[in-house]
């Protein structure tokens, strides 16, 4: 007897230690989140792109959906799986144990799912019906009420073996101070928990904000989440974040504002304080069915990849990488991989920003478009470039490499037409290029002529006299970018080629003046538009 009492006492001590560590972790996570909100680090949420968020929440919905499957089928004793590939292992175990399906539980689940789905499709999802009833029909509440009554009257747990909610502790725990002495030891390790919890919350907030057309303040969300964890740590609460299942159920029931969250919190408080005993007969299958039906639309988001694929292959890849990583590995792994891949794509796009070569639309004098358009002709003697994005150390080298390549290609085309060009013009070109004009064979010359004639007739070929850089899409230029520009201007000046900047914003113009680029340019090399530059040149 003494040994049993000693073992029980030891278990209580271990439980108390675990609770203390848990509350300390909750407090530390809350402090991190409040600190991030106060430091205005919510702007980092911009790296949670819409495609990443959709892929992550869609995959997280699969995880939550899977967690309810065993409740719906009533299969007991399934091994709990953790870590990478846990969903794969779970479904392997599930299919092996399909013969152990509890039929009464499955019947309860099928009735609940049918009622919930039909209500969603034919009542709450029907505009004609909604015009009449105005408010979404609360079938989730009906399933809980009638499921509890049916379970109580038919004694589903004792007579049929249906698993129910059973005992719900009433009341709130007394507030207890977390062990502050433990916090320094766990502070660094709780930072990752705070990051993942914050990312999950902001992802959910962005999903519902997009759906219901309202704005969110990421800093405010961080402070609110941190405050919840700090206060909860005094009541033996584990660290919290946005609940995918609960938020989805609440939204599917028609709630879309903070008022419904307040009402929901009050109802939960009432249940904890006074009504918990009345929900003890509620079958767990009813709760699982409510969550699964609520997540169907979110899981259907996986089908959006086809639409994304048609619009942008890169954005679709962000969605798929995040979704597959989250489904196959786990929620935390998937989020980290999705963010890292998104940053990699962002860096790639910044480094290899699109450079468009522009020309004049045939039959117009002012309309400028990329040369990919068959109705656009290159302006003779002028090469026009537009960089979409900032000009900085990551893409400056590739941008100017494309300009140099274009200059050499243009001069090569010009040299292929030197033979029919009058002598004075030929001499001028030789002075600019610094090389003797080659005399190509008739075969190679014909090849070059065929290539050029797709854009201009041979008689319109003129020596390159100007490079126009359209700055309308350049947001900023860093020091490396200005150094490359300065080098380009000097190189072109030696070749007798004028460099002109058009449509510069005030900030870009200031950078060009402060860096000394403008000082090496002749007067009039800053022009308001590309069309004006063509007219002047």
UniProtKB/TrEMBL annotation:
GO terms for cellular component: membrane. It is found in: Membrane. Signal peptide: none annotated. SUPFAM superfamilies: SpoIIaa-like. It is a multi-pass membrane protein. Keywords: Membrane, Transmembrane, Transmembrane helix. Its main location: membrane. InterPro entries: SLC26A/SulP_dom, SLC26A/SulP_fam, STAS_dom, STAS_dom_sf. The keyword Transmembrane applies. One of its GO terms (biological process) is transmembrane transport. The keyword Metal-binding does not apply. The chain crosses the membrane at residues 21-43, 103-123, 135-152, 186-210, 222-245, 265-296, 333-352. Coiled coil: none annotated. This is Pendrin.
